[in-house]
Amino acid sequence: MDRKLYLECYSGISGDMTVAALLDLGADEHKLMHALESLGLDGYTVSVSRVKKSGLDACDFAVNLDAAHENHDHDMAWLHGHSHEHAHSHEHAHSHDHEHDHDHEHSHEHDHEHGHSHNHEHGHHHEHRGLQEILTIIQNSSMTDHAKEIAVRIFGILAEAEAKAHGVPKEEVHFHEVGAVDSIVDIAAAAICLDDLGIEDVIVPVLYEGCGHVRCQHGIIPVPVPATLNIISEHRIPLHQTDVKGEFVTPTGAAIAAAAATEFHLPEVYTVEKIGLGAGKRTYEKPSILRAMLIVPSDKKKISPQNHDEIMKLECNIDDCSAEAIAYCMERLFEAGARDVCYTPVYMKKNRPAYMISVICSPSDTEQMEQILFRETSTIGIRRQRMERTVLERRNQTAVTSLGEIAFKVLQVGDQLRYTPEYESIAKLAREKGIPFINAYRMAEQELDGMFKVCGGEDRR
To answer: What are the residues facing 344 on neighbouring strands?
Structure first.
């Protein structure tokens, strides 16, 4: 299949946002719930519902924890509060500013009783699971082999990042936030949904992150948090940090992006087959939404008979180099594969006459062209500019005319063909026949027109 999954992370990415977006794209909810049941974890229920985010209808995937497993991951006051040493009542209704209009809920009876109160001095019992324990939970589940592979890859990325952050071997990492019930469920659910959609190629062009600080089990830490930053650095994921205070990219979200991503660049042209919106729980200045799209790259030739590509334009101004050296430089540039080279007379500072050398080349040839310019001229700096261009479809042919055999280009212009004689071919025949070049060129054009029945009034030069 040519379909690709595009994760648009302009509001960041987290585990629950990813699962919700994939469910909205069409991942099988019943398969997901059945597989989650097989994890054998206690202390939570799962709900899938529709919510409103800035007036947009989005899917919400929520892992609701009981009192013993609550980690306040979605408690904005705890995450960003300056002081939290006082005790207060905390109702587990899990509204999370969702504007919830729940259509349905899937509850797994895992020994939970909501409606109690507790203080925030964190005396709760939290399982601090190691990597091997988590992998055993995954392997003993009924998840498909491919889903297990994805989940293991995500947890491996997280373990490496946490180990680096805390300065311990990966095998000795005991997860806190990541090893919590909701994080395990989020990661397993993301793997199950990715597997169910059957998409091999995943595009993550950039992760948008906030700034400031956030509270975790270890205290107040900067955003991006160390584990997230380690993942982004290790896997070279493009990052754009905004000036909005808050944590948009969680370690779980970063690990999912790193494990799933196969590309970091969108195709220039594509069609969108389906859109999924996944709602987040945290409330910041911008709505917490992950948009996932199933896209199909388009063949631009189907859109236009013209080709589109990228070229590099190199320029430098020279006022202290001989004409012979500049001419020799042009020869070297063409020999090295330059698409075009030209000189433009210019006046530089102090009214000195000079030449601007312009080189058109493929982006991959940029370094080679610059080395030739530095070696063969007196320039000490080169300007470079990446440019898009549109070129006509073309092919090279030969034909026998009254002058002899000539080479020419056939150009596709809309639904018409244009025939252009090659200079070197015409110049050779003009010398051999002893006639002016312009006469030979016109004769070749007219005979080509007659051969291929091209409209004589068309300008083909």
So the answer is: 356
pLDDT band at 240 (very low <50, low <70, confident <90, very high): very high
Q: Which two tokens stand for residue 297?
A: 């790259």
Q: Which two tokens stand for residue 123?
A: 């005396």
- Report how far residue 392's alpha carbon sits from residue 191's, in angstroms, rounded to the nearest whole number: 45
DSSP 9: B
What is the residue type of 4? Answer: K
Phi/psi for 215 (5° steps) reads -90, 140
Q: Which residues contact 191 (CB under 8 A, 6 or more apart)?
A: 143, 147, 148, 150, 151, 154
* Gap between the Cα atoms of 182 and 267, Å rounded: 35
Instruction: Determine the straight-line distance between the first and last CA of the chain, rounded to whole angstroms.
Output: 44
For β-strands 270-279 and 393-401, DSSP reports them as unpaired
Q: What is the pTM of this model?
A: 0.57
**Rounded distance, CA 102 to CA 60, Å?**
9
- Say how far residue 94 (Cα) sits from the centre of its chain: 33
For residue 60, what are the β-bridge partners? Answer: 49
Q: DSSP for 36-79?
A: HHTT---SEEEEEEEEEETTEEEEEEEEEE-GGG---TT-HHHH
Length of the chain: 461
Q: Packing angle between helix 181-197 and helix 251-260, nearest 10 degrees?
A: 20
CA–CA dist 244, 13 (Å, integer): 15
Nearest partner of 22 among 278, 279, 282, judged by Cα = 278
Q: Which DSSP symbol is given to 257? A: H
At 242-295, the pLDDT tens digits run: 988 889 999 999 999 999 999 999 988 889 999 999 999 877 777 889 999 999
Is residue 20 within 8 Å of 58, Cβ to Cβ? yes
Whole-number Å distance between alpha carbons of 356 and 358? 6
**Strand locations in 113-206 (E):** 202-203
Whether the per-residue pLDDT at 127 is higher than 70: the answer is no
13 versus 125: the higher-pLDDT residue is 13
